[in-house]
Design goal:
This protein is 75% helix and 0% strand. With 173 residues, it is mostly helical. Helix 5 packs across helix 6 (95-105) and helix 6 packs antiparallel against helix 8.
């Protein structure tokens, strides 16, 4: 009988933990995302939708900028998870690759700009603390991490674009 009681309590504790996580989102990340969305949409309206879209069209025309500058601006200005909304400026066929680039950059930016992905700061700080204890400077780590992150998102963006377009071509045949 005690086993059944323990199983039932364990089962319910899963839902309690889920509820606590959800309430954390409701009081934490969801209002932040709504405020960011409102602010970004306001800025776009103030600058002019046509101007913003024209600028985005110019930079997304070139794959190098589409998978480096656009994700960098999105992650820097909006942070994670709002940065993915910059995908609205990318042609439909490039959206999977843009998402791959953006999602791959939310961690490497953290060393220089912790606001971009505060939830992942503990990973960077763990590595940085180890380096500090070993007598190394963390500034160089943050810069190298950032640069390597840009290189990686470019490679991932280009590869994902090629894979997606290849698969898209197969489906049409």
């Amino acid at each position: 009988m005690e086993l059944i009681t323990n199983l039932a309590q364990g089962f319910m504790s899963l839902f309690t933990a889920g509820g606590e996580t959800f309430m954390g989102w409701v009081t934490g990340i969801i209002p932040t995302v709504v405020c960011l969305m409102t602010a970004v949409n306001s800025i776009i309206k103030l600058v002019g939708t046509e101007r913003v879209e024209a600028f985005a069209a110019k930079i997304t025309k070139y794959a190098v900028l589409r998978y480096t500058l656009l994700p960098l601006m999105a992650v820097f200005f909006l942070g994670n998870p709002m940065c993915y909304t910059f995908g609205r400026f990318v042609d439909e066929k490039y959206k999977p690759a843009y998402y791959d680039a953006a999602v791959s950059f939310v961690h490497p930016i953290t060393g220089l700009f912790p606001h971009a992905n505060a939830g992942e700061l503990f990973v960077y700080m763990g590595i940085a603390t180890g380096l500090q204890q070993a007598g190394y400077d963390t500034g160089g780590l943050a810069i190298r991490y950032f640069i390597v992150g840009l290189i990686v998102i470019l490679i991932r963006g280009l590869l994902t674009e090629r894979i997606y377009l290849n698969m898209l071509g197969r489906n049409k045949a």
